[in-house]
Amino acid sequence: MISVQEAEPIIQAQVRDFGTEQLPFEKALGRVLAEDLRTDRDLPPFNRVAMDGIAIRYEAFAAGTRTFRIKGTQAAGDSPIEISASDECVEIMTGAALPPSVDTVIRYEDLELQDGQAKVKVDILQKGQSIHIQGKDRKQGEVVAAANQVITAALIGMAAAVGATELTVKKLPRTVVISTGDELVDVEATPSPFQIRRSNSYMVKAALEKYGLVADQLHIADDQSQLKMQLQDCLERYDVLILSGGISMGKFDYIPQVLEELAVEKLFHKVQQRPGKPFWFGAHAGGAVVFALPGNPGSTFMCLHRYFMPCLQTCLGIAKTGMYAALNTDFSFQPRLQYFLQVTLRISEQGLLVATPLEGNGSGDFSNLIEADAFLELPAERSDFKKGEVYRVWPFKGLGV
């Protein structure tokens, strides 16, 4: 059995780049940007009016002019209306392109409009006020979104603004989520008193979709020959195999033996942790890696977020920053194992991230996962943990506030 600290670099050593692909920008949400996104023109692309009102030549106001004749009305998207006399103005709307013959915008709140004239009610103006200058946000060709970040709704909007109809994104590993066990039945089925519905594979599949990874699903019965045949096929077709169940000490836990027969090198089996102690990890000469997770739902979910998700982030080039939270109460855990405590998270009035433990009934109890926000990682060398102490946290849901 190895420690958590020993397991992590073994997994990270198997990281590889899966290349890139092009996607229509509107279908790229959740994927990872592979190339910098640059502007195709200045942003804003013209001197943009930032307030509804009138546009004047500032020197006229500075010379004492307070009433201006309205030359015309210009909406956003209209061709600019030019003035030819210093006492003229253009009634202009937010978003419109500022005509070159004017340089200052006065908002409606500071005006009286009557009979085609605009009277200024204030004595102080700033030249160039209420104008968003061309190129102030970004110049043509500048980076507006750096590579190696998850594509968000805001980034989709920026892609549209710069005319990037396609985005270069990181390819995702071909992944299959495999459940095993004769006690598991289809979701649509009515279980016997001694059966349960398959849930782990759906939980894992849903978690992977955070990065746009749509995994295939497969269920294999507790039959050694069937298991060997189907795993052989998966090793040839996929980059990543995520298995749930069948790796403990039971008579029908065939997976470690079958993987060995299929020339999957065992890199470790069993980690000094709870939940998830039976975790098995290995690599095949053909390139596939195998995450064989314990079948208990809490164990599956924890190992996925503690080991597979960081591995995936590294493959995709996403910069990882650790998150830490302070315990909200004293907590004790006696076995000499790294303990992953289910917690809720909130931001305190002092701006600190605070973790509150959730009571549970072991790794088979996954009802708490609905209420929990994260796993708090407590070191194996200690048994008693005090309120206010800070530990690494592995979030899988938004923060509670």
Care to describe what's here?
The structure is a single chain. By secondary structure, this protein is α/β, with parallel strands linked by helices. The chain has 4 domains: 4-18 and 172-315, MoaB/Mog-like domain (Molybdenum Cofactor Biosythetic Enzyme, Chain A, 3-Layer(aba) Sandwich), CATH 3.40.980; 21-37 and 146-170, Molybdopterin biosynthesis moea protein, domain 2, CATH 3.90.105.10; 48-132, Molybdopterin biosynthesis moeA protein, domain 3 (Beta Complex); 323-395, Beta Barrel (Beta-clip). The protein is built from 8 helices and 28 strands. The chain has a 6-stranded mixed beta sheet with strand order 7-4-6-5-9-8. Strands 16-13-17-21-20-18 form a 6-stranded mixed beta sheet, with helices on both faces. Helix 4 packs parallel to helix 7 (297-315) and helix 5 (224-237) crosses helix 6.
* Mass-distribution shape: elongated
Low-confidence stretches: none
Kindly, what is the distance between the CA atoms of the first and last residues, rounded to a whole number of angstroms?
39 Å
Percentage of residues in DSSP E strands: 25-35%
Sheet having the most strands: 6 strands, mixed
Number of structurally distinct domains: 4
Query: How many distinct helices?
Result: 8
Second CATH tier, the architecture of the largest domain: 3-Layer(aba) Sandwich
Q: CATH class of the largest domain, anyone?
A: Alpha Beta
Could you name the CATH topology of the largest domain? Molybdenum Cofactor Biosythetic Enzyme, Chain A
Radius of gyration: 30 Å
How many strands in all? 28
- Structural class, by secondary structure, is alpha/beta
